[in-house]
Amino acid sequence: MKVNDIMAALEAKHPGENEYLQAVREVLESVEEVYNQHPEFEAAKIVERLVEPDRVFTFRVTWVDDKGQVQTNLGYRVQYNAALGAYKGGLRFHPAVNVSMLKFLGFEQIFKNSLTNLPLGGGKGGADFDPTGKSDAEVMRFCQAFMYELWRNIGPDQDSPAGDVGVGGREIGYMYGMYKKLAREHSTGALTGKAYGWGGSLIRPEATGFGAMYYVDRMVRQKGETMNGKTIALSGFGNVAWGAATKATELGAKVVALSGPDGVCELPNGIDKEMIDYMLVMRDSRRNKVQDMADKFPGKAIFTPGKKAWSVKCDIACPSAFQNEMNEEDAKMLIANKVQYVAEISNMGCQPAAIAAIQNAGIPFAPGKAVNAGGVSTSGLEISQNAGHINWTAAEVDQKLHKIMNDIYDMCVEYGKQADGSINYVKGANIAGFMRVAKAMLAQGIV
Ligand code: 2IT
Do the domains at 53-186 and 205-363 have one common CATH topology? Predict the structure, then answer.
């Protein structure tokens, strides 16, 4: 395979699908050398098959808002690759959602899910619905209308969606209620991120952030250091940033920044329990304003409008909100401020030029598909509990999550170790994730 030839063909076929093309290029560049040592991959056209989703559903979602107005959104489910298991991946509700975004997320999900070593295929879905400012009743009606279209295409052995940006436990509950009604069965493995008590797993809400900090802890130890006393900047203040802030604080690190679409909150003394709890209140309000933290905790949180988390000096920077949220200029500012580690928690949180700047400065950089894999791992554990009619304790789930993250870290080191002894976590994650999928596709024939 020649990456440039494959990309030229894809660009011609999918013009303007920039996020999808960006995600594909990164993976192909990482695996090119290893792939070309396997003529059997080339003969089976593994890459040509892998870059296209198995299928993409697009559907109209019509609902009535609180004023009685009829609203129409577009819903999607991208079923990307099922070589390792039933399709698995989140649903994103955000006004910018389109096919390219969901294809990029679904493509990333294939390799992330592979890294977990669980039987999970890759998929993603969502809608261009904006939850900002919506009432509970509006969200419920939207979720029900969305599921009315999607329900036939999901199920524990077919496709199991979960949450993502704009979709949390409340939305999963509304969608599951409609799924159950239409399918006429209590098939809990059809959705993950359910609440505890009716099929949800303890630690699932925390899992992405906890898993990310387990991974970052290993990156820091790799350099002979510990998390104790390290300052950390997180972007966003949603579920992922909440879990990361909780675990980072527990590990002795100091969270010095959170951000939102409105600006950044600097936290000179770090974040305490009351502030961490307040992140959930802010999220549930659907106001989408980080300034609320500064209004609630004057002196402890200092709000600056229009600035990003990367403007705050820190040892560890973790994008935890949205793709491409760190650009080259942001990366250079972090480097000038002596950042020591950058770990994406959001999927593809950094632009390619930002990653290049960080890596060229000799700073360890880890990609989202490895760092944030704790979320989907715990979804996999949720499905196992559903299938076996068991409930693990929080400690049991946390221990399994920690082990999965340690194993992922070890694989990234194994496949990412460079001649000079440094670790290219991007290559490591992409090659490790890719090999498992490619071998499964090969074994399953031309389908
Ligand atoms: O990006 C992700 O891995 C998720 N949004 C979670 C997917 C899942 O199925 O738990």
Answer: yes
Q: What is the pLDDT of residue 314?
A: 98
pLDDT in tens, 367-376: 999 999 999 9
Look at the alpha carbons of 269, 274, 280, 283 in this order and tell me if their dihedral is positive or negative.
Answer: negative
User: What residue segments make up the domains of the chain, in order of their start?
Assistant: 53-186, 205-363
Written as one string, the DSSP assignment of 55-101 is EEEEEEEEEE-TTS-EEEEEEEEEEEE-SSSSEEEEEEE-TT--HHH
**How far, in Å, from the CA of 362 to the mean position of ligand 1?**
30
pLDDT digits (tens, 9 = 90+) for 186-240: 999 999 999 999 999 999 999 999 999 999 999 999 999 999 999 999 999 999 9
**CATH code of domain 205-363:** 3.40.50.720
Candidate list 88, 103, 112, 124, residue with the active-site label: 124
Asked whether the beta carbons of 91 and 162 are under 8 A apart, the reply is yes
- HSE-up of 273 (CA within 13 Å, CB side)? 1
Phi, psi (5° rounding) for residue 175? -70, -40
Verify whether residue 124 is a known catalytic residue. yes
Q: What pLDDT was estimated at residue 79?
A: 99
Domain 53-186 coded CATH 3.40.50.10860: yes
Ligand 1 atom 9 nearest Cα = 89
Residue 105 CA: nearest ligand 1 atom is 1
Q: Which two tokens stand for residue 295?
A: 């209004």
CA of 126 to the centre of ligand 1 (A): 12
